[in-house]
Specification:
The protein is α+β, with helices and mostly antiparallel strands. The chain contains 6 helices and 17 strands. Strands 5, 8, 9, 10, 13, 14 and 17 form a 7-stranded mixed sheet that branches. Strands 1-3-2 form a 3-stranded antiparallel sheet. Strands 4-7-11 form a 3-stranded antiparallel sheet, with no helix packed on it. The two termini are 29 Å apart.
Length: 304
């Protein structure tokens, strides 16, 4: 759950945790096994080599699991496939046990056994695919096909990769005076309405000025925490104040519902005698980010 560390009661996200129909100790799981080997260099310790071999064994356990093999066929994005394997390997294997550890010179091979929940795999695959679907829609050029002026949004990490505990800083700049709208599409299928709504009312920004959200001089403080995955921050600007349909009273909405609402707001409706009606969004920009738990990040380091 994201929160504002300056105002600790102000939540930036809602983590939806479905209540399981099974007690924690009786969740259906299946037994799985895997093997991983690693050859260490002269400047690496045996302890590090063992960690890397164990990480590879966990990955092999997941990649060979039938439920994952079947789910993988539905995931066309190869980068997502790799990320899913690492996420599942790091956090969804239970009761991991090293059954065999064999050293042969500088090489170590480890055989493990573990338990895994088949329902967990399907749930995670569907969740990540939904994230990518929202990301693709929000960042698509067709979402704002004909901007009338320049609008930029950038983050404090150029590659957009954030790890649990990192600070997130959002920068916005426009080529003309305009009203700003800023929305945060998070990994749990929710969108947080930053401006206007959660932090500020109708925000009027001036041409060429850089506006910072989450910086040291900003009243907002954003710290990366769960849920993790593919996220997007969307900025749109209008020459006039935003219509009521684009300023929801709630601070958080369902992402797909709000995407559909934004699409309507971005469309200029024809009025009588060639005029237009409604408020036209003059420009839009987006910044995609990928958030990762510390556990998964550390696991990825051991798979290099």
């Amino acid at each position: 759950m994201r929160f504002n560390v300056t105002y600790t009661i102000l939540l930036l996200g809602i983590l939806v945790c479905p209540v399981s129909a099974f007690p924690q100790d009786s969740i259906p799981r299946e037994a799985v096994t895997g093997k991983g080997c690693y050859s260490h260099s002269d400047d690496e310790t045996r302890t590090l080599a063992k960690k890397k071999a164990l990480a590879r064994a966990r990955e092999q356990t997941v990649s060979g699991y039938q439920v994952w093999v079947e789910s993988k066929a539905e995931v066309k994005n190869f980068q997502l496939q790799e990320d899913l394997i690492q996420t599942i390997s790091a956090g969804m294997l239970h009761k991991v046990k090293i059954n065999e550890e064999v050293w042969n010179g500088t090489q170590i091979c480890i055989v493990i056994s573990a338990e895994i929940g088949p329902n967990d795999i399907g749930t995670e695959v569907r969740r990540r695919q939904e994230q990518l679907k929202i990301k693709d829609q929000v960042t698509s050029e067709t979402f704002n096909p004909d901007p009338a002026f320049g609008l930029r949004i950038w983050l404090n990490k150029a590659d957009g990769r954030f790890i649990e505990g990192d600070y997130l800083i959002i920068n916005v700049q426009a080529d003309r005076d305009a009203y700003l709208k800023l929305d945060y599409f998070q990994a749990n299928g929710k969108v947080v309405h930053l401006v206007p709504n959660l932090f500020r009312g109708q925000a009027f920004i001036q041409k060429g000025e850089t506006y910072v959200f989450g910086g040291k001089d900003s009243p907002e403080r954003f710290i990366i925490s769960e849920p993790f995955g593919d996220e997007v921050i969307k900025a749109v600007a209008s020459a006039q104040p935003f219509a009521a349909m684009l300023t929801p009273k709630e601070s958080v909405s369902e992402s797909q519902d709000y995407v559909d609402t934004l699409k309507k707001g971005l469309t200029v409706q024809p009025g009588p005698k060639g005029t237009t009606r409604g408020i036209q969004i003059m420009s839009g920009a987006s910044a995609a980010l990928s958030t990762t738990s510390r556990q998964v990040s550390d696991f990825k380091e051991n798979t290099k």
